[in-house]
Amino acid sequence: MLNPAETAERLRRSDEKAFEEFFRAYRGAIHRFIRYRIGDPEAASDLAQDTFAILWDRRHTIDPKKSVQALLYTVAGNLTNNWMRHRKVEREYRSELEWASRADDPEPDRTFLREQILRRVEELPEQPRIVFLMSRVEDLSYREIAERLSLSISCV
After folding, report:
1. Where are the alpha helices (DSSP H) in the chain?
2. Is 123 within 8 Å of 134 (Cβ atoms)?
3. Residue 137: helix, strand or coil by DSSP?
4. Long-range contacts of 110-118 (CB under 8 A, 24+ apart)
5. What is this structure's pTM?
6. What is the pLDDT of residues 88-147, one digit of tens each?
7. Which among 31, 128, 132, 154 is placed 20 to 30 Å from 12, CA to CA?
8. Mind giving me the DSSP string for 41-75?
């Protein structure tokens, strides 16, 4: 097991072996931490790598009296928050562009609207998405959905 104070001091001294040990000990946990928050395994891998790169870049500022693990999770959390904010801005921008490009059309394009609805449905958590699709696509009643999913009608 890594000694936290010793690891912090070794990292401050640019000990690459200490960094490698620290990386191996925490890479899986950091990847899971990020993946659970954003749901994108590939982006989580990139953000986990960035987390360790930032830690290495800032190794000289590590305070040996403080937890390096806490610093690692703070960096990962900040990167994740920034990534999520960026994705939200991208989605909003794309949506505005798509709507603006159709503003000249006197009748809304049904295909476009359908794509927008499907995109939003895909963003729903699993259970609400299943219920929605059973209701709207399969045209099942709430009672039928409740019976198939072993739920109460009020849950549906």
Report:
1. 4-12, 16-38, 41-57, 68-101, 110-122, 126-136, 142-149
2. no
3. coil
4. none
5. 0.60
6. 888 888 777 776 666 555 565 677 777 788 788 778 787 888 888 888 877 888 888 888
7. 31
8. HHHHHHHHHHHHHHHHHTGGG--TTS-HHHHHHHH
